[in-house]
Amino acid sequence: MPLKNVVKKNTFEKSSTDEILHAIEECCEEKHIREIIDDDRTIKLMDLEKNMYMAVAPDPDIIIRTGGERRISNFLLWQSGGSHLCTVLALRPEIGLWNLVLAILNFQKHKPYFEMKKKEK
């Protein structure tokens, strides 16, 4: 698997609730300005997604959750809808190369399923 398109996302402090609320507020502000020009009040999915904090980065393929937790707890909720959730028992400071390799192998095993789901959208 070539690693040329690998993007590592570390997010702290901001929750998905804050991010979604921010995106809606920005869309409403933009629509209010546009409404004066062309009477367009519809907020489209594309409008919402471009106002997300992580709009400049691709949606994650894999989310590695440390500490054995099986929940994403308000973390990248919007972007992780089609992501593979991998849990490891190691805590974040102790996560190693083998944890990453196993997560990638697990993702590759399930990749056909994720590709099928993306085509359905």
Automatic annotation (TrEMBL):
- Alphabetized Gene3D superfamilies for the sequence: Decaprenyl diphosphate synthase-like
Which UniProt keywords are present, listed alphabetically?
A: Transferase
Q: Cross-referenced InterPro entries, in alphabetical order? A: UPP_synth-like (IPR001441), UPP_synth-like_CS (IPR018520), UPP_synth-like_sf (IPR036424)
Among PROSITE patterns, the record links this protein to: UPP_SYNTHASE (PS01066)
Q: Does the keyword Flavoprotein apply?
A: no
Known SUPFAM superfamilies for this protein? Undecaprenyl diphosphate synthase (SSF64005)
Q: For this UniProt entry, which residues form the secretion signal?
A: none
What is its pathway? Protein modification; protein glycosylation
Q: What does this protein do?
A: Catalyzes cis-prenyl chain elongation to produce the polyprenyl backbone of dolichol, a glycosyl carrier-lipid required for the biosynthesis of several classes of glycoprotein.
What does the similarity note say? Belongs to the UPP synthase family.
Name used for this protein in its record: Ditrans,polycis-polyprenyl diphosphate synthase ((2E,6E)-farnesyl diphosphate specific)
